[in-house]
Amino acid sequence: MKNLKQGYLSHWGRNSAKIDQNIVRISEKMGIGGESSPDVEEPSRIDKNTWDLAINHIENGIPAYEIRKNPDKYILMFSFWDANELFDLSNPDGTIPNSKYIRASCEPFNDEMEIDEEKLMNWLNKFGVDYVIDDKNGKKFFKRAHVSGHACKPELKKLIEKIKPKTVIPVHTEKPEIFKELAKEIDTGIKVIIPEYGKTYPF
Prior knowledge:
Elements (H helix, E strand, L loop, with lengths): L1 H14 L5 H10 L17 H13 L3 H6 L16 H4 L21 H16 L6 E4 L2 E4 L10 H11 L3 E2 L9 H9 L4 E2 L11
Parallel strand pairs: 3-4
Antiparallel strand pairs: 1-2
Helix pairs in contact: 1-2, 2-3
């Protein structure tokens, strides 16, 4: 198993570091990103936390056959570039019954994206995966539940006013200090904690 893990990390550290941001972070810590990098040798070359993070999915990941047996227990993140995974998830008859695809990203805004969307529909049709169509001017697109956008300041203010939290910890923002301004505008005694990298915040 140790050789399997080392081989896996060596391969993916070299070949996928440029496209997978998580692997980029892991491979940077391990010093294996890029074609001229050394192979992964022993866990002792890196700290244990980095090693455990890098091989976590090998030990704790859910195999395709388990998802295939109990599809109602899982929600998968899936895109056009993952269509090849449908083969592993399908039954012997080539279908994935009782499955639903929900599109949660922006609409196509160029010809290439429209072509990719059509290709993905064809793949889903091939495997019997259900989805809802939005017909616009004779062109078929996925009906979307778009959740990948960022809230603007008025929307964040409205959200805080509605939820009325005792504490706000802003994350995934370049200007966390703005939340202190929002808290003053709302004036409800909200405590705003600007998180510091590496620090633990108990709840």
